[in-house]
Amino acid sequence: NVLTIEILTACQAIDFLKPLTCGKGTGAAYQFIRERIPHLGKDRILHDDIAKALKYIKDDSLLGAVESVVKLN
């Protein structure tokens, strides 16, 4: 759960740092999450966002999105 909240917090921070961009792996993780969980523009209950992000971590789909753009040796 902590990792999930850290990822959501990082995505939120990246939103505020635009026009700066991420590296390949970080960018892929950010894009993957943002395609599924929108920016937190106003207060809302975060339970559903956390549950979705946790699912993506547990089923390795977030990892797969990152690995698909990062060359592994």
Unreliable runs, pLDDT <50, ≥5 residues?
none
Order of helices and strands: HHHH
SSE class: mainly alpha
pLDDT averaged over residues: 95
Rg computed from alpha carbons, rounded to a whole number of angstroms: 12 Å
Question: Could you provide a short overview of the structure?
Answer:
The chain is an all-alpha fold and 73 residues long. It is 64% helix and 0% strand.
Task: List the SSEs and their pairings.
Elements: H1 2-16, H2 24-36, H3 47-58, H4 61-67
Describe the protein in words.
The protein is mainly α and 73 residues long. It contains 4 helices and no strands. The protein has helices at 2-16, 24-36, 47-58, 61-67. Helix 1 packs across helix 3 (47-58) and helix 2 (24-36) packs antiparallel against helix 4 (61-67).
Descriptors:
mainly alpha; 64% helix; 0% strand
